[in-house]
């Protein structure tokens, strides 16, 4: 699945365990391309920072969708799609 939108915030230089291995990641909040009122949280895995500024378009390949049952928050674990 591909998610596209506008980058609203990012926090670089984070670390997590994903599928049993340690990965660098960037935590982001993105406004959906179709409905900008709809926002989603994501972790962009295997990146220490991304070359995309706040307010710029971004495209991500979703690897895993995680729903936190207590809060109802949905988070996407993704890879950045590098466009030429």
Automatic annotation (TrEMBL):
This is DUF35 domain-containing protein. The lineage of its organism: Bacteria, Bacillati, Chloroflexota, Ktedonobacteria, Ktedonobacterales.
